Amino acid sequence: MSSNVKTRILFHSRRLNIYLVRYPEGHKIVPHVDMVSEGRLYKFNCVLIKPKAGGQFICEKNVFNLSGRFILFRPDLYQHGVSKIESGSRWLLSFALSRN
């Protein structure tokens, strides 16, 4: 299933990474916590295109979540995932910031 996920790295540095990701119909992300070797990890996700059905982001705790489109959270502390995309695809612009 993950072989159909398309990820493009738009920017990569020691502290900031920016990705454009396309999740296809049928894909889901099981609940998980992102591991970091040190410091804190923040993610700001902008959902550019929502799927027609399914594909809902689920997180134990968000810093903020505006209409399911703009989400800031700590993936290193809180379990998060995405429900199965039933119809359509999900396009995401993701900013990952590492802080020591």
Radius of gyration: 13 Å
Number of helical regions: 0
Main beta-sheet strand count, sense and barrel state: 6 strands, antiparallel
CATH overall fold name: Jelly Rolls
The chain-level mean pLDDT equals 95
Segments where pLDDT lies below 50 for 5+ residues? none
Oligomeric form: single chain
Total number of β-strand segments? Answer: 11
**Order of strands across the biggest sheet?**
1-2-11-4-8-7
CATH domain class: Mainly Beta
Q: Please name the fourth-level CATH homologous superfamily.
A: Jelly Rolls
Shape: globular
CATH architecture: Sandwich
- One letter per element, helices H and strands E, the order comes to EEEEEEEEEEE
Description:
The chain is mainly beta. The chain has a single domain, classed as Jelly Rolls (Sandwich). The chain has no helices and 11 strands. It is globular, with a radius of gyration of 13 Å. The model has no long low-confidence stretch (mean pLDDT 95).
List the keywords.
single chain; 100 residues; mainly beta; Jelly Rolls; 6-stranded antiparallel beta sheet; 3-stranded antiparallel beta sheet; 0% helix; 2OG-Fe(II) oxygenase
How does the SSE layout of this entry go?
Blueprint: E1 6-12, E2 16-23, E3 29-32, E4 40-49, E5 53-54, E6 57-59, E7 62-66, E8 70-73, E9 80-82, E10 85-87, E11 90-99
Antiparallel strand pairs: 1-2, 2-11, 3-9, 4-8, 4-11, 5-10, 6-9, 7-8
